[in-house]
Design a protein that fits this description.
By secondary structure, the protein is of the alpha/beta class. The chain has one domain: RlpA-like domain (Barwin-like endoglucanases). It is about 15% helix and about 30% strand. It has two helices and six strands, in the order H-E-E-E-E-E-H-E. The protein has a six-stranded mixed beta barrel. It starts with a helix and ends in a 13-residue tail after the last strand.
Length: about 140
């Protein structure tokens, strides 16, 4: 229930800040860590050459039409948290995935504990979340 209330208030705030370019994407959310088994031979370097770290997400390539490198997004996790988390798109996933977001975790065990969840991405056509909406 908190999720619905928070989500609706965030949308109202977005409307009040003239965010006509606000978009929502329903996604599957998984997790990964910097291991050769889960990535490639350079596990701490993302697909575009950026270093991965806290707040990094990888996105499925079908979302690249709406998102780009360095873009900030808000992610609501269904049944996990009443407030969204802010992430930066710094990596992209294997072509086989669709409508999917992968959150970077420092260690493999934490990524496994996170598991697989459903979520909603809130995104804007520019790279920054409007200051009034930014979750701190």
């Amino acid at each position: 229930m908190n999720y619905v209330i928070y989500f609706l208030s965030l949308l109202l705030l977005a409307i009040n800040t003239n965010c006509a370019d606000l978009q929502m994407e329903h996604v599957t959310v998984t997790a990964y860590s910097s291991t050769v088994e889960e990535t490639d031979s350079t596990p701490f370097i993302a697909a575009w050459g950026d270093s991965v770290g806290a707040g990094t997400i990888a996105i499925s390539r079908d979302l690249l039409t709406e998102l780009s490198r360095g873009q900030h997004v808000l992610l609501f996790l269904n049944g996990y948290s009443s407030a969204p988390d802010t992430f930066v798109v710094n990596d992209k996933m294997n072509r086989r995935w669709k409508k999917r977001v992968d959150i970077w975790f420092e260690d493999k065990q934490a990524a496994h504990r996170f598991g697989k969840k459903k979520g909603v991405l809130l995104l804007w056509s520019n790279t920054s979340i409007p200051e009034k909406i930014m979750i701190k």
